[in-house]
Amino acid sequence: MNSLQFYFTNAWRWKCNLPELEQEYRNKDGSVPDIETIQQLSFNRDFTKLMNNRMVMGFFRYGNRHNRKVQLDNIASVLRRVKLYQETGNTELLLDAANMLRMEFEIPQHSNAHFHSQDDGEHFNFK
Question: What's the pTM?
Fold first, then answer.
């Protein structure tokens, strides 16, 4: 990313009340990392592996979630697990919550479930 692109990126962040980016993501030679490198830095394989392990165990415990007659209230379960995580710090609860969000995404219970990308919306609450 050249200086002009960097300036416009930060101008967009200022507009959205986001903190300014520092150029720490640049390689030592000043170039921007390739997509594969960015994905490796942004993706946690352990988290995904542990999520998938729990989904496999859920299959054996509860059956194929696509064929269940009774569906779970995924969102209420997510909120309960996040609250428990805040109380206990047990990160396994985050894996369970992530899987429940995944199930809600794949087999939505919400009557108006849809996907609409919100690039200009709020993404994070910064401390």
Answer: 0.67
